[in-house]
Specification:
Blueprint lengths: L1 H30 L30 E7 L2 E6 L9 E6 L4 E4 L12 H8 L10 E4 L20 E3 L4 H8 L9 E4 L4 E6 L8 E5 L4 E5 L6 E3 L3 H15 L6 E4 L28 H12 L5 E4 L2 E4 L1 H41 L1
Parallel strand pairs: 4-5, 5-6, 10-12, 11-14
Antiparallel strand pairs: 1-2, 2-3, 3-4, 7-8, 8-9, 9-10, 13-14
Helix pairs in contact: 4-5
Length: about 350
């Protein structure tokens, strides 16, 4: 009887030990982030490349691409504005989010608001509520704000630094992180200053799309504050490290498929680079920005510049050249006068 009791006790201890081992092994598995299946979409689109002569070859003012049933990409025509910015509409179950409003204010030129309202579910006047936000405050990303003011279902968030911090509740900016809840669709908001102090990027958990405005795109990366830009690149790289990224979508395209930049203010982009970048591009960005010399640097596929410093350096160079020309001219005139004086003295 004692042996039987000991056997039962030993089996019980063994069972508890096995259970303990299984639970111990399960802890790291359950503590790792678990991501639900991403909602797929398509980037099978050819963006309008503009024209070498827009007057003779007019283009549609606004191009529309449906990534999936609840995600839309809009682009203003190169013939309408050389900026040709991209805007993004994300539709949730209780709210929709529009990221940026483009470079054109006049709805008769680009009917952005009417297009967005047409894409929203529901019938007037009971359209789905719309939240209008910006990647940053530069005019080519907010000029169309006024088009939404007469729509009762639209709320336009301010673009200045105080409005951005207040709306997203960035108490420890730029290290804060915010969320915008669209119902069954959560969007993370990441401060990414460097190009501009108001810059933010958006990560859509539903699709795995990362919207980066002018912070990262297939274009010139204009950097105003190198230190802030490096910190932002490291912040975003850390954010996406353990998260799925379907595509990275920026604010502009300014290079061709070979990586060469189009001329500034060009209305024609033949063989244009695709809009979408990858997670690897995000992870490579910190090292690229750390190599930036403060003026103009090409690092791998990234072209970085500080336009203000370049303009200042150019202005200083022009002043130096002008000063040198003036100094040379003054010396020449003085020498001519001196030579004439000497000749008169010799003649006298």
């Amino acid at each position: 009887m004692a042996r039987e009791t000991d056997r039962i006790i030993d089996n019980g201890l063994l069972s508890r030990f096995i259970l303990f081992v299984l639970l111990t092994l399960a802890v790291p598995l359950t503590s790792a982030p678990v991501w639900s299946q991403l909602v797929p979409g398509s980037m099978d689109v050819h963006w309008n490349e503009g024209s070498p002569n827009c007057a003779k070859d007019p283009q549609p003012a606004l191009q529309e691409h449906q990534y999936n049933t609840r995600t839309f990409i809009l682009r203003e025509s190169l013939c309408t504005t050389f900026e040709a910015p991209f805007m993004y509409l994300l539709i949730g179950s209780t709210k929709a989010l529009l990221i940026d409003t483009g470079d054109i204010a006049d709805p008769n030129v680009i009917p952005l608001a009417d297009t967005v309202m047409r894409l929203l579910p529901g019938e007037e006047p009971r359209k789905l509520p719309l939240l209008v936000v910006h990647t940053h405050r530069h005019l080519d990303h907010r000029a169309g704000d006024a088009q939404f003011t007469h729509f009762p279902n639209a709320q336009v968030v301010g673009f200045d630094s105080d409005s951005v911090r207040r709306f997203y509740k960035f108490t420890d900016s730029p290290d804060g992180l915010a969320q915008v809840d669209l119902g069954d669709r959560m969007v993370d908001v990441i401060p990414t200053p460097g190009h501009n102090e108001t810059e933010v990027s958006f990560y859509d958990r539903s699709t795995g799309l990362l919207f980066t405005g002018d912070f990262l795109m297939p274009a010139r990366l204009l950097i105003d504050d190198t230190g802030s830009d490096v910190a932002s690149a490291e912040r975003v790289a850390a954010f996406v490290k353990d998260r799925p990224v379907s595509f990275l979508l920026g604010g502009h395209i300014e290079m061709n498929s070979a990586g060469a930049l189009f001329p500034w203010e060009s209305h024609y982009h033949p063989h244009e680079h695709v809009l979408q970048l990858t997670k690897d591009d995000v992870l490579a960005l910190p090292a690229a920005i750390r190599s930036f010399n403060g003026f103009y640097t090409v690092h791998s596929k990234f072209t970085m510049e500080n336009s203000i410093r370049i303009l200042i350096a150019f202005a200083v160079l022009v002043l130096v050249v002008v000063a040198a020309v003036v100094w040379t001219l003054v010396r020449y005139i003085r020498r001519r006068r001196h030579d004439r004086k000497q000749r008169r003295e010799i003649q006298d």
